[in-house]
Write a structure and sequence with these properties.
Length: about 425
């Protein structure tokens, strides 16, 4: 009996460890230091916000779902499903582009789209291109050595320089000694692992971090296994290389990475740095996306076809382990769901009698973009669908609009598979 009680106690301990295996990354593996604060807060060791039920998947549970369906293409548009989706757009159909792929019944996929070939600036959704580029460059340098790729990401120590100027996005700095979290924009001289800069690009959507990752990826493409290079060598390279050559290297780094992974560059590309400092250093081109091509990207990601299975899996994990859910992903209907998302906004105001300019309420342009993979309930995955969405609805809170749409779409999917 004593032995049985011991086994029961051990089983209970294992269960507890599994339940509190949030976040999915071990900060010691990746160098993403904020994850240690999140883990301690979830366990009640320190004060902090608890995670939603859908945010508590373990590392092993965040995985690619379509490895056995690598030949799956977007199915023909379902008119009835499309009518349901467009019925949620509240009279502003001409201001929305949307695509929804429901794979809850993998044998009977349903696909809806509306204005899905309209080009729009992707905003921060374009940061998934940055992630794709760095993983493609790592695969080119170390095609058979996954541990070497992890080591470059986790052990390359990067210093923020003039490429970060200027950005107001705050990121999280965790001090393990003081057990204290500080939120502020990245400053000149700040240091972190390449993986942490990549996380800052995805999670709080820092333009400074994304521009830093682009710079480092250009160096990785240029120097291959000689990367990382010393800060002085990096400065010399960007100072003395002709601007035309830098522009070509940027295009190779970002555009070629997408094209090699089946993305149509006429329908989705990130053409430049995200900061004025980066754009001054390296000339770029325009950025745009369509919801259909964004949907094709998500489908290929789940099939392990963005670079390779390792890279696709790591990109999906970065989309999952966000600091908090915002915009589309903040819908209460998704609290129990695992949501892998990226959003981006770009709004601008102009003088108008009686109009007050507020965040996400632009009256000249009010771009909001969202991409999401939803598994609900998390762990059970009874519902499984993708959404790509862009909008330019003027004078309305576009963040709330996307949240409301998320609720409506989820209820439609639920009703179809009750």
């Amino acid at each position: 009996m004593a032995g049985l009680r011991g086994l029961a106690a051990l089983a209970c301990l294992v269960w507890v460890v599994t339940v509190y295996a949030y976040p999915i990354y071990d900060s010691g593996l990746t160098g993403i230091r904020r994850l240690e604060e999140a883990r301690l807060a979830q366990a009640g060791v320190i004060a902090g916000q608890k995670r939603l039920a859908g945010e508590l998947l373990t590392l092993e549970q965040v995985d690619l779902r379509l490895l056995e369906h690598r030949d799956l293409l977007l199915p023909p548009v379902d008119p009835a499903f499309t009518k349901q989706i467009t019925g949620l757009l509240d009279g502003d159909q001409d201001r929305y582009s949307i695509a929804v792929l429901d794979l809850s019944d993998i044998q009977r996929p349903r696909y809806a789209e509306h204005n899905a070939d309209v080009l729009q600036n992707p905003g921060s959704v374009g940061k998934i291109v940055v992630g794709t580029a760095v993983f493609q460059a790592l695969a080119d340098a170390y095609p058979e050595d996954l541990e070497a790729r992890r080591e470059v990401l986790g052990k390359t120590w990067v210093t923020a320089d003039e490429f970060i100027v200027h950005d107001s996005h705050e990121v999280r700095f965790w001090s393990p000694q003081a057990r204290r979290m500080t939120r502020r924009p990245i400053r000149l001289g700040d240091q972190a692992s390449l993986w942490e800069f990549l996380d800052w690009s995805f999670s709080p959507s820092s333009n400074a971090a994304a521009s830093t990752v682009i710079k480092q990826t250009m160096l990785l493409v240029r120097f291959g296994r000689q990367y990382p290079v010393a800060d002085e060598a990096s400065r010399d390279f960007f100072m003395h290389t002709p601007r035309a050559e830098l522009a070509q290297l940027l295009a190779t780094t970002l555009h070629t990475a997408l094209a090699r992974n089946g993305v149509d560059l006429k329908r989705f590309r990130q053409g430049s740095f995200f900061t004025a400092g980066g754009k001054r250093k390296v000339p770029g081109t325009s950025s745009y996306a369509t919801t259909r091509e964004l949907m094709r990207y998500l489908l290929r990601l789940e099939q392990g076809r963005i670079v390779d299975e390792f890279s696709s899996r790591e990109l999906k994990r970065l989309l999952y382990v966000t600091e908090r859910r915002i915009r589309y992903a903040s819908s209460p209907a998704l609290y129990n769901a695992a949501v892998y998302f990226k959003s981006g906004s770009l709004y601008q105001c102009q003088p108008e009698p009686g109009f007050i300019c507020r965040k996400f309420h632009g009256n000249k342009r009010n771009l909001m973009n969202s991409v999401a993979i939803v598994e609900a309930p998390a762990g059970d995955r009874r519902l499984y669908y993708f959404v790509t969405l862009t909008s330019n609805v003027l004078r309305k809170n576009s963040a709330v609009d996307h949240q409301t749409l998320a609720t409506g779409i989820h209820r439609l999917i639920e009703a179809a598979h009750h």
